[in-house]
Amino acid sequence: MVMLSSVASLLLAGSASDNEQETENKREWGVERHDDVIYDIMLKRVQHGNSPQNEVSEGLQWGTHKVRYVKAATLERLVAHLCRWKRIKREEAEDKRLPLFRSIERLIRTWVKRHFNDFYQPPSHPLLHQLVRDVEGWRADTCDVIEADDDLTSFLRTKLNAAELQTFQEKCLEDMNSPGNYVEQDDPGSPLGEVPDNTEATKTFLNDLSPTHVAEQLTLKDANLFMRTIPHHCLDA
């Protein structure tokens, strides 16, 4: 069960007017549970419209509607509720689509921060790449209601870069600690021992490496050596 405060609201009363004001009074009523979703129940005081659909309520200016806010849900149900945000009409964007987008943004940001291992899938990290693409798509769909300086995409790209760097570091340490990277010398008197003659291949490989990559490799090797150092062995006898 995933706990979430006011991620999305579902207006249950079918007679609710599309012109109701966001400043209407609300009163807490209780908690309900349906289909693996826990709702906070609010009673909302709204003014009836003047459309023909309200003929039954003719003479009544105000009414009370029941509103449910998602408080907690299983992951499947939570995603199902969040995915309804695109159904909100353009004319309702400022009042409804933006708050819902912000709720989704907070959910994603909190999830990635607290449970980063859920998205850490080396070496290619497909979930993080998919999440970045989805958020960029949401931004394009909500460009009329979100601010230009929204940083959710930047936040996710930073996390993706950190994941790729961590994967690179783990791979480098694994390669350095691999027995295959050390040449066994058959002749102790020879500094190089029996080494295959692959000079040209080595030159080609080194020419393909950037100075930054070489510096990173040397730094990681130094770090590996420092981790093996025993401090009191460095002291004078």
Automatic annotation (TrEMBL):
Transmembrane segments: none annotated. Keywords: Signal. GO terms for biological process: Ras protein signal transduction. Residues 1-17 form the signal peptide. One of its GO terms (molecular function) is guanyl-nucleotide exchange factor activity. One of its GO terms (cellular component) is plasma membrane. InterPro entries: Ras-like_GEF, Ras_GEF_dom_sf, RASGEF_cat_dom_sf. This is Uncharacterized protein. The lineage of its organism: Eukaryota, Metazoa, Chordata, Tunicata, Ascidiacea.
